[in-house]
Amino acid sequence: MAESTECVFCRIVRGEAPAHVVAESPLSLALLDVRPLAAGHCLVISRRHEVWWHDLTAAETADLFGLARRVARRLKRACRPDFVATYARGRRIPHVHLFLVPSFAGDPLDRHFNALEGWQEGADALAALADPARRAEVAARLAAEPDEEAP
Ligand SMILES: [Zn+2]
Fold first, then answer.
1. Distance 93 CA to ligand 1 centre (A)
2. Distance 97 CA to ligand 1 centre (A)
């Protein structure tokens, strides 16, 4: 994709928009997110405009993740989180950016991922309930229960 004049990350790369840049590498920049989920929340962006991280070149990908690792290790020392979570999107700002979020047990990101994991595990629990043998067993128990008079 051609470099966009409207893209805020491209403007930051060109020095045309302000940012708290915390580290650089030949093909990537790391900067503080303007809407942090935690103190120290950084974004690692490619210098070249591309929407999805998997469309970067192999060299750009290695550089991006190498810088992410360097910054995550700094965050671990500077902010003392349990760990540094990472994920990549590209929907809100369509320019490659890895999120580096210092994560603590019970913080909003931790609760978000716990909810996602609960949803994944819940699908298995619901599938087990839908099993025909399990449903027949529950139906037999329910049918065998006598009616009670309402109090
Ligand atoms: Zn861009």
1. 8
2. 10
Determine the distance separating the centroid of ligand 1 and the alpha carbon of 29, expressed in angstroms: 12
pTM above 0.90, yes or no: no
How confident is the model over 8-33, as pLDDT tens digits?
999 999 999 999 999 999 999 999 99
* Alpha-carbon span 14 to 143, nearest angstrom: 72
- pLDDT tens for each residue of 98-143: 999 999 999 888 898 889 888 888 888 888 888 899 999 999 999 9
C-alpha 25 to ligand 1 mean position (Å): 17
- Mean pLDDT of the region 75-95: 94
Q: How far apart are CA 39 and CA 25, in angstroms?
A: 22
What does the chain look like in DSSP terms, one character per residue? Answer: -PPPSS-HHHHHHTT-S---EEEEETTEEEEE-SS-SSTT-EEEEESS--SSGGGS-HHHHHHHHHHHHHHHHHHHHHH--SEEEEEEE-SSS-S-EEEEEEE-TTSHHHHHHHHHHHHHHHHHHHHHHH-HHHHHHHHHHHHHSPP----
